[in-house]
Automatic annotation (TrEMBL):
CDD domains cross-referenced by the UniProt entry: MTHFR
UniProt-listed Pfam families: MTHFR (PF02219)
Tagged with keyword rRNA-binding: no
Family: Belongs to the methylenetetrahydrofolate reductase family.
Record's keyword terms, sorted: FAD, Flavoprotein, Oxidoreductase
PANTHER family: METHYLENETETRAHYDROFOLATE REDUCTASE, METHYLENETETRAHYDROFOLATE REDUCTASE (NADPH)
Protein name, per record: Methylenetetrahydrofolate reductase
Gene Ontology terms for molecular function: FAD binding; methylenetetrahydrofolate reductase (NADH) activity
Native species: Actinosynnema mirum (strain ATCC 29888 / DSM 43827 / JCM 3225 / NBRC 14064 / NCIMB 13271 / NRRL B-12336 / IMRU 3971 / 101)
Cofactor(s) for this UniProt protein: FAD
Known pathway: One-carbon metabolism; tetrahydrofolate interconversion
GO biological process: methionine biosynthetic process; tetrahydrofolate interconversion
Length: 296
């Protein structure tokens, strides 16, 4: 099974897509329609998020295994350390290896219930993503990614400390990082500059979500931890109450941001799809990232 790094090196520029595990049979159909529609565009890899706990985790494991076994796609499994003992983490990693998943996004995860609540490590578990990177490396020939935060992780004291910790994770054996959502290309490029200034040249992928609805805009505020900047408000405010106009302007905004990032030499664009493919397909086609035969 090919690694994410091999795919990024072989396909320049590349794009990749992220899904979350289905909650029920109807969700599963929606997810698989999106996977099949995107498969035709040959993304560099497909990632599936790791549930916050219990059955969500089993659903992640099943969905990632299905991608590995039933599609031509290169899967990447997310894995979080929260609420797992090291023995459990070893089991999950072993299971991923057994079904042919070679790529893991190693994360700490948020405390269950209130994501901003107090972080408590499992008594036999890990404290930071950095330790999970080491565990993955110890257990097999995995290609390992980590999370990066253009505005800093909410628990970090400041941007310098945040960058220091990101670089530590990368130096612990991670091959690349994927950035949390952000609003303007410069926000990502400043993160890249901070990492490069520390002598680290690992691949950093920007994470983008097509702004198709006010809900996706609200999600971007929530996940990025940043308020909507004036540039974005100016582009989208005129379309309050006009769903089609909002979608057109939002998709255009994200497309132009992707264009700028590609011009700045990013190795690929990672799309948060919310298990829908249409807007991602539009952006990817507009940027010339899909094979010509499938974009007509
Ligand atoms: P860490 O890198 O461990 O960082 C956590 C905090 O500790 C940061 O403030 C950091 O600066 C600090 N820190 C790190 N190392 C040290 C150290 N050595 N000493 C002191 N402080 C340190 N969540 C899910 O539940 N499932 C998912 O599938 C998922 N996928 C994600 C994908 C992406 C691309 C991103 C960006 C986030 C994702 N998340 C997911 C959310 C993520 O789990 C949370 O944001 C979590 O709070 C941080 O995880 P981390 O891996 O960055 O943690």
């Amino acid at each position: 099974m090919t690694s994410v790094l091999e795919r990024l090196a072989g396909k320049t520029p590349a794009f990749s897509v992220e899904f979350f595990p289905p909650r029920d049979a109807a969700d599963e159909q929606v997810l698989w329609r999106a996977i099949r529609e995107l498969e035709a565009l040959d993304p560099a890899f497909v990632s599936i998020t790791y549930g916050a706990g219990g059955s969500g985790r089993d659903r992640t494991i099943r969905a990632t295994g299905r991608v590995a076994q039933e599609t031509t796609l290169v899967p990447m499994a997310h894995l979080t350390a929260v609420d797992h003992s090291v023995a459990e983490l070893r089991n999950v990693i072993g299971w991923y290896a057994a079904v042919g998943v070679r790529n893991i996004l190693a994360l700490r995860g948020d405390p269950p219930g209130d994501p901003n609540g107090e972080w408590t490590a499992h008594p036999q578990g890990l404290n930071y993503a950095e330790e999970l990177v080491r565990l993955c490396r110890e257990l097999g020939d995995f290609c390992v990614g980590v999370a990066a935060f253009p505005y800093g992780h909410p628990r970090s004291a400041d941007l310098d400390t945040d960058t220091e910790h990101l670089v530590r994770k990368l130096r612990a054996g991670a091959d690349f990082a994927i950035a949390q959502l952000f609003f303007e290309a410069d926000d990502f490029l400043r993160l890249r500059d901070r990492v490069v200034a520390r002598g680290c040249d690992a691949a950093l992928l920007p994470g983008l979500m097509p702004l198709t609805t006010p809900r996706t805009l609200a999600k971007t505020v929530e996940l990025s931890g940043a308020p909507v900047p004036d540039s974005v408000a100016r582009a989208l405010d005129p379309f309050t109450g006009d769903a089609a106009g909002f979608r057109r302007a939002g998709v255009e905004l994200v497309t132009r941001m992707g264009e700028r990032l590609l011009a700045e030499g990013v190795p690929g664009l990672h799309f948060y799809t919310l298990n829908r493919s249409k807007a991602t397909r539009e952006v990817v086609a507009d940027l010339g990232l899909a094979p010509a035969r499938t974009t007509a």
